[in-house]
Cell division topological specificity factor
Amino acid sequence: MGLFDFLTAKKQTASVAKDRLRIIVAHERSAGRGRGGPDYLPMLQRELLEVIRKYVNVDVEAVKVDLVKEGEHDVLDISVALPEPNVQA
């Protein structure tokens, strides 16, 4: 094995590692959808709840954040169940 063969072998190894990494990343992205969405959705839901609680007293279950597929686009669906207003007669 000559010096140049060693350098060529390293490039092939790097290429194989790069291809493997691409497969792993693609798999993780598709697995993320299967788990219910991207990793940031729970954090986004908590932060939205904190902001909404500054103005309205709501339960933890009152804020729902989902990622919905509509055609070619992913749409962030945010639902907030507000409490009924107190009516004083």
